[in-house]
Specification:
This protein is of the alpha+beta class. The strands form twelve sheets. A four-stranded parallel sheet has the order 2-1-26-27, with helices on one face. It has a four-stranded antiparallel sheet with strand order 6-5-9-19. The longest helix is centred in the last third of the chain and has 23 residues. The model has no long low-confidence stretch (mean pLDDT 92). Helices cover 35% and strands 20% of the residues.
RNA sequence: GCAGGCAUGGCGGAAUCGGUAGACGCAGCGGACUUAAAAUCCGUUUUCCGUAAGGAAGUGGGGGUUCGAGUCCCCCUGCCUGCACCA
């Protein structure tokens, strides 16, 4: 017996597929298309198990849809701009471009060894001028369409490194590299007007019926549409006004304070004459920009001493606070507080001794407000202590209050979104330059299209703090395209989320000299199946949805939605190991001894086995896919990835699991290479009378049921179940020991079907088995097998018989036996009679083909 | 803090519509083959009581709906993801 040599076999078929150009595709309007896309990788150095899982899932879909007759587009590329390249440049003195392209070369080779059915002719890298020049054109188009604009916004500023920090680079309020206290600073930056599409982005979620429900929910909450009112309060003793946004205008009579954001102009104005307030605002600015940080910070306020007039109660005034929990980016940056009916306001009021006046009552309302606000707002509620609103329910009171506000000319009902415009400016080198020029005379001037691309300069250094583009000696100095005067290039580059917001469309015509080609993109888009991590559920997916709408607005394509189908995969996890001194250890540094204890390979000290956690460099619980492929082959790695856990759940990578997959790989190979019992000749027909051969018929039934079941599993993304069914089919093949001609026929049929069914999952093994079975066709060109309905239908069913809900017997009966007959059979059953023990039968529930429940 | 999700044997998981809980695999145990090991093959494996036949309990915890709940509803606990400059 020739032991299956994965290395030779996989190499052989990869060469064959490449030589045949098996996965190169062209748009072909005469054929149905299917676009499969996995989220493209960041070229961080080497591929990791998360990539292996992601691309295995995508490849199963791509190969399956191909067998189903679709013209399948399955491209690959690189999300190649970003911060890590600049960190590498600083730490290792490598140019970001060199570092990135080296990584791409390594990772491309690793991906190729996985045997993915990718059209490599369409490969793109977002850091390549051939990609980002088109992005610059799109930026200009968005600008022209009014979808890109400038405004001020807050960033995390590191005063020592003189740079803007990402939220993840701020640790306990300090810069990760410098250790300096980070401060919030306002910068003028570029924004994309995602809020222009807020309503559409929200409403269109409903049509995304092949997206996970939870992702749609998360996006819905993120967009956060709320109906309410804008309302101006008059500041007492001045003609200033403070405009607030509220969703609860019905509770205005219960208001006890106003609060404005520390970034609000009113706060700044008051701080000019109030040193303590200025200090309070400065303190608020020391909190980072991350919302999680703001939300968990202790709620604090400062009484400005100013008062505003209550809009409905003459002579009544409210204090104005500056409060750290009021966001300048949401609503109008100011709120009114009604402590009785909002938890946050109540906490604030208790802390600063402000009045708590209940104005809403209802069936579950407490007699008195303690530490819990009463926030019911349904039709069973009644407004009290509220003048003209008294007696109304909350929804009616909202309408009445808004009508009054409008009549008084103080404001109006509005719809507000939590969603904020997308800030795309980054003060960094390794990104797509924003094609704009700042002229002292003309203002902001777009780079003329015939001057694109704005190339990144190569000669940059990272040994000075700040943005290399900003202190490059010549790069930013240009003439104004309008007036010819000396002007400055925009030195900000694009957020890398912009790069990943249209790459899927670029794949349709990756070498075109316009960003997109109408015919190509209209044929291929939308992506039929997009696959990636749940961590992208909001930002990346929302930005891509926005950008596709922007492209549509600019006339580039016809669809609004980039991804018709979405699948979010789980993470790859592994046990963690720590040495006696607490150091994390890699799985390769430890061994499990026969008694089950774990020790370090070097030195033999005992090892603590920790929790199973997401593979990460910091915890060293990583397994290198390259090593696994060397040792077991790509098919085994792919098979194990698919085998145990459902794709949307986290999975645990274990050595034992891979070994099990490896053993099964060998077992499948043996089925074709040296079957235990004889196979019929290739292409032979079912022998005469074979349909009555019981063993053969049983195997044939199993085979055809497996075809049907695996087809369902692949459609439903339950790949782990598909794997289990292949195991079951293999068991059935080996359990059929009959040597009749009919059995030999059934066996060949079963083995050939198994070979074709595993092809999307273990493509190399499948090809090799197919060849070993005597075929000279290649499986990548074979259609998917069809199940024979005559063989998938069962004639008899097993009925569970319960007494009082407890299983007491099972009945083997003909399919579709009627309820009366089932009831009679069940009541006659010996075990059932014994359990009933003469008690009167009160009721019998019969569900045909399923269950009989006798109630006593 | 807010939003979303997940929880089933020693482990990963299965259970299509509310209808036999534990398919399939891993690990374990027993056996065959072997000088031996690996590989392979056969058997066994939710827990508790029982020699057995059989019985009882059981899907993170508590409550509810139902003839019947892993599945539906309410409350709680733990863990995971995201929070707008990581990608």
């Amino acid at each position: 017996m020739a032991r299956y040599n994965s290395k030779e076999v996989e190499d052989k078929w990869q060469r064959r597929w490449a030589a045949d150009g098996a996965f190169a595709v062209q748009a072909d309007p005469s054929r149905p298309k299917y676009y499969v896309l996995e989220m493209f990788p960041y070229p961080s150095g080497r591929i990791h198990m998360g990539h292996v899982r992601n691309y295995t899932l995508g490849d199963v879909v791509a190969r399956y849809k191909r067998a189903r007759g679709f013209n399948v587009l399955h491209p690959m590329g690189w999300d190649a701009f970003g911060l890590p390249a600049e960190n590498a440049a600083q730490e290792k003195k490598v140019h970001p471009a060199a570092w990135t392209y080296d990584n791409i070369a390594t990772m491309r080779a690793e991906l190729k060894r996985m045997g993915l059915s990718l059209d490599w002719d369409r490969e793109i890298a977002t850091c390549h001028p051939d990609y980002y020049r088109h992005q610059q054109k799109l930026f200009l188009d968005l600008h022209k369409a009014g979808l890109a604009y400038r405004k001020e916004s807050a960033v995390n500023w590191d005063p020592v490194d003189m740079t803007v920090l990402a939220n993840e680079q701020v640790i306990d309020g300090r810069g990760w590299r410098s250790g300096a206290l980070v401060e919030k600073r306002l910068l003028s930056q570029w924004f994309f007007k995602i809020t222009h599409f807020a309503d559409d982005l929200l409403q269109a979620l409903e049509g995304l019926d092949r997206w996970p429900e939870r992702v749609r929910l998360m996006q819905q909450n993120w967009i956060g549409r709320s109906e309410g009112a804008r309302l101006a309060f008059d500041v007492v003793g001045s003609d200033e006004k403070i405009e607030i946004f509220t969703t609860r205008p019905d509770t205005l009579f219960g208001a006890s304070f106003l609060a404005v954001s520390p970034d609000h102009p009113f706060a700044a104005a008051r701080a000019a004459g109030d040193a303590a307030l200025a200090e309070f605002i400065a303190e608020c600015k020391r909190t980072g920009t991350a919302e999680a940080e703001l939300a968990t910070a202790e709620k604090k306020g400062y009484d400005t001493g100013a008062r505003v007039a209550h809009p409905f109660v003459d002579g009544h005034t409210l204090p104005v606070y500056v409060a750290n929990f009021v966001l300048m980016d949401y609503g109008s940056g100011a709120i009114f507080g009604c402590p009785a009916h909002d938890q946050r306001d109540l906490d604030f009021a208790r802390k600063y001794g402000l009045p708590v006046l209940p104005v809403v009552t209802g069936p579950n309302a407490p007699a008195e407000i303690g530490d819990v606000a009463y926030d019911e707002d349904g039709p069973a509620t009644r407004i009290v202590n509220s003048g003209f609103l008294d007696g109304l329910d909350v929804p009616a009171a909202k309408k009445a209050a808004i009508a009054r506000i409008k009549a008084d000319g103080r404001g109006e009902g509005t719809v507000n979104f939590r969603l904020r415009d997308w800030g795309v400016s980054r003060q960094r080198y390794w990104g797509c330059p924003i094609p704009m020029i700042h002229c002292d005379h003309c203002g902001v001037v777009p780079v003329p299209e015939d001057q694109l691309p704005v190339l990144l300069p190569d000669d940059v250094t990272f040994d000075r703090p700040g943005n290399p583009l900003d202190h490059h000696p010549t790069w930013k100095h240009v003439e104004c395209p309008q007036c010819g005067a000396k002007a400055r290039r925009e030195t900000d580059t694009c957020d890398t989320f912009v790069d990943s917001s249209w790459y899927f469309a670029r794949y349709c015509s990756p070498r075109a000299d316009t960003p997109l080609v109408r015919d190509e993109v209209d044929y291929w888009m939308s992506v039929d199946q997009y696959i990636g991590g749940i961590e992208h559920a909001i930002l990346h997916l929302l930005y891509a949805r926005f950008f596709t709408r922007a492209l549509q607005t600019c006339g580039y394509l016809k669809v609004a939605e980039p991804f018709a189908g979405l699948f979010t995969q789980g993470m790859v996890c592994h046990e963690t190991f720590r040495g006696a001194d607490g150091r994390w250890l890699t799985p390769e540094e430890v061994e499990r001894r026969a008694d089950g204890s774990w020790h370090e390979l070097a030195g033999g000290q005992p090892v603590t086995v920790g929790r199973v956690e997401k593979m990460s460099k910091s915890k060293k619980n990583v397994v290198d896919p390259g090593r696994i492929i060397d040792q077991y082959g790509a098919d085994t790695a792919r098979w194990f990835m698919l085998s145990d856990s459902p794709p949307d759940r986290d999975m645990e990578w274990t050595e034992a699991g891979v070994q099990g997959a490896w053993r099964f790989t060998q077992r499948l190979w043996r089925l074709a290479d040296e079957p235990r019992d004889p196979l019929a000749e290739k292409g032979s027909a079912l022998p005469e009378g074979g349909a009555d051969d019981a063993d053969a018929l049983a195997l044939r039934r199993e085979t055809h049921k497996t075809i049907a079941a695996i087809s369902r599993d692949l459609d439903a993304f339950t790949f782990n179940k598909a794997v289990a069914r292949i195991h079951e089919l293999a068991n059935s093949i080996e359990d059929c020991r009959s040597v009749t001609p009919a059995a030999a026929f059934a066996r060949r049929e079963a083995i050939e079907v198994a070979t074709r069914l595993i092809a999307p999952m273990m493509p190399h093994l499948a090809e090799e088995m197919w060849q070993r079975l005597g075929h000279d066709t290649v499986l990548v060109d074979m259609p998917w097998p069809e199940a024979d309905p005559a063989l998938t239908r069962e004639d008899s069913v097993t009925i569970a018989v319960q007494v009082g809900g407890k299983l007491r017997a099972t009945l083997e009966v003909a399919r579709d036996m009627d309820a009366k007959a089932l009831e009679a059979l069940a009541l006659a059953d010996e075990a059932v009679v014994r359990v009933i023990a003469g008690r009167p039968v009160r009721k019998v529930v019969v569900v045909p083909n399923r269950i009989v429940n006798v109630v006593v």
